[in-house]
Amino acid sequence: MRHFRLLVLGNGISAYGSYLNMVALNVFVYDATGSALAAGLFMAVRLATSVVSGWVSGRLVSAHDRKRLMVGADLCQAAALLTLLLAPDGMRTGLLYALAVVTGGCSTLSQVALRSSIPEIVGAEHRVRANGLLVTGRSLAMIAGFASSGLVVAQLGYSAAFALDAATFLVSATVLFLLPVRTKAAAADGGPAETSGAVRWTARMLLGTAPVLMAMIAVRAVDGLGSSSHNVALPIYSSSLDPDHPATFISQFWATWAIGNIVAQQVIGRVTKKTGRTPGERAFALGACVMSAGFIVVFCGLPTAPAVLAALVAGAADGFTEIVYVSRLQTAPDDQRGRLFGLSASAENTGFGLGMLVSGALLEKFSPLHVVAAFHGLAIALCLALLLSLLRRGGARGPGAEERADRDTSTVVKGRG
Asked: Are residues 132 and 35 located together in one domain of the fold?
């Protein structure tokens, strides 16, 4: 785990750059073009690229060395930012959309490659703890990136923000390159020959052999809808609470959410170490219900203290479900894992992107509470349906059915690959 902690540090640094980049670039696009449509188009191109990249990344991760892919993705993002930084002012606007393609595609590729590699880097028995560390690192990076972006841009300017962002990707690439870690199973190191079975992998096959995994991916896609709704609604809701200081509640919300993520990592790590058991699909469905319910409560107009407490619960449940979900998908065979995470990334990004468009339109007519409750309510309904299905399956198969299903799914997928 010593090497993995260094990897988490490098990943957290690049994540900080990504979140800084997310704010600085969106503001820069609007300042450079003076058009809200151009800013929206930039975000749309980036999200669309992320969706497409999920499918492509699954194939790349299954066929090629994942460490090299992650290093290459970081270097490409750094190069794209430096190109934008060094370009004349007249060329920057045109380069922005190329940058959106590069950052959207490379960030998804890096995420798919890393998640697919964790069981090989730390061992399958340590994957829950490793996933928790990654969740914690990215949560802290998100808070730092969002909190410092305004200060960096205001005090140092866009060029400094782009240079700092590029530097974070270079640091991450260097850390990854120097770490002596193996990212693929030994049996899969044979190169192109390994992909002959993987090519036959399709979502239809997975639906037939591992319907629970597909249901979990569907839940994550709908969770993306819910996440987009509270992301879009939060500035509006915060402004209604305190028109003079609209950023106050947003800062409180995200800081508390991050604390909840960290608490979840600590709790699930201790429970897993003590019991030797990994929370499964039922825990995922229940945790997703709690998460969505927590986000709805945040927008109910409660006083600050209970609203922040609800954000803490939502953050903890969010971190918990993220760890359980990723750990569950990592039980798939190594040669199929990359495509599985690629499918997951496409589903999540599709849900989030669609939700951004729809929730933004709905907020023109409805209150933040109504929009957030509708989107997260849909997620709760789907999670309850999944939970009910799992309980029925468990009752039919007897005690220990969920753990046996976990092993059986991995075996079946491997056999069909």
From this structure: yes
